[in-house]
Write a structure and sequence with these properties.
By secondary structure, this protein is of the alpha/beta class. The protein is built from nine helices and 16 strands.
């Protein structure tokens, strides 16, 4: 069992993982935690890779004043500045990873690379693809969460867009490719699930995995929370976990939480966790057809086993959509059926006859 996020000390700093500063995780690589304006996640780790040509940053943080100032201060601790940044390798499109990279990249002339799978998300966020309503609301309606859809429909900012820094990247990562960073070679590996275009970056020679939100040491990543939704985000996520598990075991450099010694150990925990959740979802269908929102109401949430009714609207929305992802995988496995209805998709257990 992993250490709770609230008490997680990172071995590179000897302090809580979100403590400000610049901490060396390997020769020429520093972790700089940037603050986040939310209750659950206190910070996002940005990794700074030094080369003779300048700096490459893995992820960029959220384009808020506090994040920008923390990054500037962290770079100053290692004798660097924004002017030294040459490139951002962004793991995925969520604003706490992409938005400050997009803003700073445009400001200092640093290239920003992002997975090609994120283009449908950016198309929607930039209005290139017309939508009758905010895509997250449609997902909530399919989950049977009509009241949550109503709440989020009253708050246009809740879909995660940041108009100050929202743009297309300078280059797209397509497939699994090698990326040269000075004398280093990073293997950019497509790992859909958390979002459809998520990437991790493995430096096998140094034994490191820049994991973004794909593998987190103290929490389980949300699944499929993105504008351009896919039917089977959990299937994609578990397949991506298996893909990373097939690599040599590496040191985990996560976007949220402390660095950890074994990617394999955490991947095994995450796979086991989702199998347990799938079993709970199937058991919740034993009394008949239900929506994802109904099933979510029966499940415990977070490592503390909180009741669904105690969650705030944002986390209730995440829980409803994540439950739907589990139910959709049960359908794909032949253990459940689905029926589209106006009040939400109804899921039912498939009864095996002797």
């Amino acid at each position: 069992m992993s250490t709770p996020t609230a008490y997680a000390v990172s071995p590179d700093s000897g302090e809580h993982w979100s403590a400000p500063g610049a901490f060396e995780v390997a020769a020429g690589i520093h972790r700089i935690p940037l603050p986040l304006p939310m209750d659950g996640l206190k910070a996002v780790n940005v990794y700074v890779i030094e080369t003779e040509q300048g700096l490459t940053l893995v992820d960029g943080g959220w384009a808020i004043t506090e994040g920008r100032e923390a990054l500037e201060k962290g770079l100053r601790q290692i004798g660097r500045s924004f002017a030294d940044i040459r490139r951002f390798l962004v793991t995925h499109v969520h604003r706490d990873h992409f938005s400050l990279a997009a803003a700073l990249g445009a400001e200092v002339g640093a290239g920003v690379a992002l997975g090609l799978g994120e283009k449908p998300n950016l198309d929607m966020m930039l209005g290139a693809v017309p939508a009758d309503e905010m895509p997250m609301i449609a997902q909530l309606r399919e989950s049977g969460a009509a009241e949550l859809a109503r709440i989020f429909g009253q708050d246009p900012s809740s879909d995660g867009r940041d108009e100050r820094s929202l743009r297309y990247p300078d280059s797209w990562l397509d497939g699994d490719v090698e990326v040269g960073v000075g004398e280093r070679t990073l293997h950019a590996i497509h790992t859909p699930g958390h979002t459809r275009g998520h990437y991790v970056f493995a430096e096998r020679q140094a034994g490191l995995l820049f994991a973004g939100d794909h593998v987190l040491p103290t929490i389980t990543p949300s699944i499929g929370f993105e504008p351009a939704a896919v039917r089977q985000p959990l299937r994609d996520f578990m397949a991506s976990l298996a893909k990373v598990r097939a690599l040599p075991d590496l040191t985990l450099l996560p976007a949220h939480g402390p660095i950890a010694p074994s990617v394999h150990a955490r991947v095994d925990e995450l796979l086991a966790h989702h199998e347990e959740r799938l079993a709970l979802c199937l058991a919740a269908l034993s009394g008949g057809a239900r929506t994802a929102y109904d099933v979510a109401g029966d499940l415990p949430w977070t490592r503390h086993g909180h009741a669904f009714a105690t969650l705030d609207p944002f986390n209730s929305a995440l829980a409803s959509m994540e439950t739907k992802a589990h139910l959709e995988l049960l359908v794909a496995r032949g253990q459940a059926s689905r029926t589209d209805r106006a009040d939400g998709v109804q899921f039912a257990a498939v009864v095996e006859h002797a």
